[in-house]
User: Fold this.
Amino acid sequence: MTPAWIVCAWPPVLWQVDETAPLHLVHLGTRVLRFGNDEGPLIGQTLWGETSAEPVAGVAWDWVEVQDGVVAMADPLGVVTNLKLLDARGVALSDFQVAVHLNGLVHSLPWQTEVQRAIHHLND
Assistant:
């Protein structure tokens, strides 16, 4: 898997959140790690991106398995992206506004399903 945090090194992509068509992100990979011993929780990173056209947008974040079969974002403010979010006038959004939009984007993706699939492959 491509390291999730590499998305920071991708060329920046301007995204006008009020005007631009929605992003069509696909799952690019999920990494699963065990925290501590074999009884510790599973943690990891997941990477999503656009692969259909240039420039390519991407987002990545850490996740944690909070109980068997249930995964959550480890830090909702820790989404990493190469997107530069702009309002309808082309003005950069504040950090708070960016966090709200990125969390909405994350929650619109079927990422828990992909993380669960990666966990099941780990157990195979």
